[in-house]
Design brief:
The complex is a heterodimer of chains A (93) and B (238). With 93 residues, chain A is an all-alpha fold. Helix content of chain A is 58%, strand content 0%. In chain B, a hairpin with a 4-residue loop joins strand 4 and strand 5 (90-97). Chain B is of the alpha+beta class. Classes of the chains: A mainly alpha (93), B alpha+beta (238).
Chain lengths: 93, 238
Amino acid sequence: MGNSMSASFAPECTELKKTYDSCFNEWYSEKFLKGKSVENECTKEWYAYIGCVNENLKKKSIQSALDDARKEAPFESGGELVNANANANANKK
Amino acid sequence: MKLFENKYDFDYPWEQVTAANWQKYPNEVATHVVGVDVLRRELKDNGNVLVSERLLTVQQKVPRWIMMVLGGSNISYVREVSTVNLKEKSLKLRSCNLNYVNLLRVYEMVDYIPHPEDPYNKTLFSQQAQITAGGKFGKLVNTLEDWSIQRFCDNAAKGKAGFDSVLRSLWEEHWDNNSLVIKVNETVDDLGLQMSKRVTEMNAAAEAVIKESLRKFTILTDYQDLFTEAFDDAKNPH
């Protein structure tokens, strides 16, 4: 079966990712789901991991595709398409 | 543009399904997802809403003719924004491919909510995808959209089977006694013989899926004349 935690897209970030994921998964089940959390607690692990990710995003040249996708479906709107056409179609049953 | 829709029940409580969502990959069935990264994550609304942006790394078996057209690697990326809302009890996933968007764009919407008929024990999963092929390749477009719908159906079935197996192992070992759900690894080791039996069953299921997609691959190769023609058209526009 091997390791059951997923790898990072950049191999050098995988260990940092696993450390962060462990912390997050525990926080999610033990605090977030129980409504006991007002802040995301794994900040130390997060910054170590996201630093590695951002560095490698540029290297892998997926940054521009990512920027386009972010414009089309912003994080702030929960990833919903900003294009009204697409939304109209999505609501069709 | 084509639409794809799907609904499933999961025999697990909503809370648990959302926790397992973070640990969905890797699993034995959906082997095409080889990496998952979190790019941004914010807690909002006094700790009631969690929004995450993830990058999924996908290694896909792509028909040879697509590789020919795209001339690229079989690694592609998907961006996903998910929202867990504790008050509404909903988990929404919104995903789109990052590669070849001009050629083929798949926007997927997945919602997990407590099942209306059994909200404490079951979760209702609904999935919708808009598949749009770019106009550039003329005659290819319909075939490409159909192929994608097919591929999407295959992967949707694989996704369900894979997620079921993750939910099962999390449930049996950890959720019941309220301990950490993060130790999937150890769970699998502990389950020992029982698990290997299950893996055998999973493999059989995966094999069936592979056989099915091979059959489809064969059907696709029958269209080769069409692809060659369309490819020539694209190279020499009228």
